[in-house]
Amino acid sequence: MASSEDKKLLFAILKHVSGLSGSVDEMQLDVALQCLTEAVGVDLHDEQDKAQLDVPFALKDIFQAGLASLSANSGSANASSSSSSSMDNNTSSSGSSSTTNNNNASSEEEKKMDLASNPKFQQFITALKSRNFFQGAEPNTPEYEYRMAKAEYKFISKFSKNAEEIDAAEKRMRMKTVVTDQARQEAEAIKARANKALSSGNVDESIKLYTDAIALNPRVAVYYANRAAAYLNQKMYDKVIVDCVEAISLNPDYAKAYYRLGRAQRELGMIDEAISTFQKAANLTANDRNMNSTITQQLREVQAIKSNGGAGAAGNAQDPMAQIRNMVNNNPDLANLARQFAGGAGGAGGAGGAGAAGAGAGGAPDLSALLNNPAVAQMAQQFLGGMGGAGAGAGAGA
């Protein structure tokens, strides 16, 4: 049982923590205070505790005064302890291994939190229940599981030092979101608006809309892959990778997600990873000649980059014609349009044999010959200018 002095200290701590409101999360602070109150048996709002335990000094003042006093006395304390340091050397060295082991064990505990046997988490859940956090949600129902996942995420994000564990908890919470039929319909309508915004060049708006669709229904791979297309347009390659990985986790056979992932990996110089990703995408599109041709072209290019020691990994962003070629090669919809144009351009006033360019091996258009046509080059440059110089790749219209 805690002594009177211990209870006074605990009361001062609770009083100090309570005064932190405004500088920390109010809900988390309230839950923490409830947990502490239950754990130590001291209540700030109990009149008897107030009368017996409250002291006329703030905890911060007590701490500063004590620290100053200890600092003033540290010189003599160090001098008196130095004479016995040689006697302690033998025991300190023998105890170092056990100290290290204890530190390692503590580190491992920080890395992975076992919530089922964690008393702090059980107290946290009890506090949430007292605040009606689970009201209206029956155990073993989707709504209850979502709220429990949300509670786990809040707890882990506050107490864990492992970023991967926090991310995993956030993902579990997201995947437990209860999606109603109305939410699904709203998400699909928003996705359609996002696709339209992206195709018209309003990339920022499309990202916002895809994000809104994900919030309504976080289990649809297309939403993440399409937002990745928008991020690819803005050269935000790290975000492309995050969204593509999420899309693939939801749909392991989603070729467009692999394709956009490979694009981002290539731009970031991750050539080995890009080769593997494009190979996977090519295998998944064996029956889609147009898209497979585009992906195979990317695969050949990154393989060539690897053979050349990594030179040209990020492409040539300064050459407009190179941008046009990359944009067409990297977008199945535009590549298909180029094939159609190449097939019918032969009679266009004898324009440099563009009609003869046709489709090369594997169905890919001969863009070098096609872009030698001044009219085609001018049209492509105008199109490139209207798109801001960057293609999202592989269409977002899914």
The computed structural class is mainly alpha
The chain-level mean pLDDT equals 74
Number of helices: 20
The poorly predicted ranges are: 76-112, 315-322, 345-364, 384-394
Characterization of this structure:
This protein has 398 residues and is mainly alpha-helical. The chain has 20 helices and no strands. α13 packs antiparallel against α14 (271-284). The chain is elongated, with a radius of gyration of 32 Å. Residues 76-112, 315-322, 345-364 and 384-394 have low confidence and may be disordered.
Question: Layout of SSEs?
Answer:
Blueprint: H1 4-18, H2 26-40, H3 47-53, H4 59-82, H5 85-111, H6 119-130, H7 142-159, H8 163-175, H9 181-199, H10 203-216, H11 221-233, H12 237-250, H13 255-267, H14 271-284, H15 289-307, H16 320-329, H17 332-344, H18 354-357, H19 367-370, H20 374-386
Helix pairs in contact: 1-2, 1-3, 2-6, 7-8, 9-10, 10-11, 11-12, 11-13, 12-13, 13-14, 14-15, 15-17, 16-20
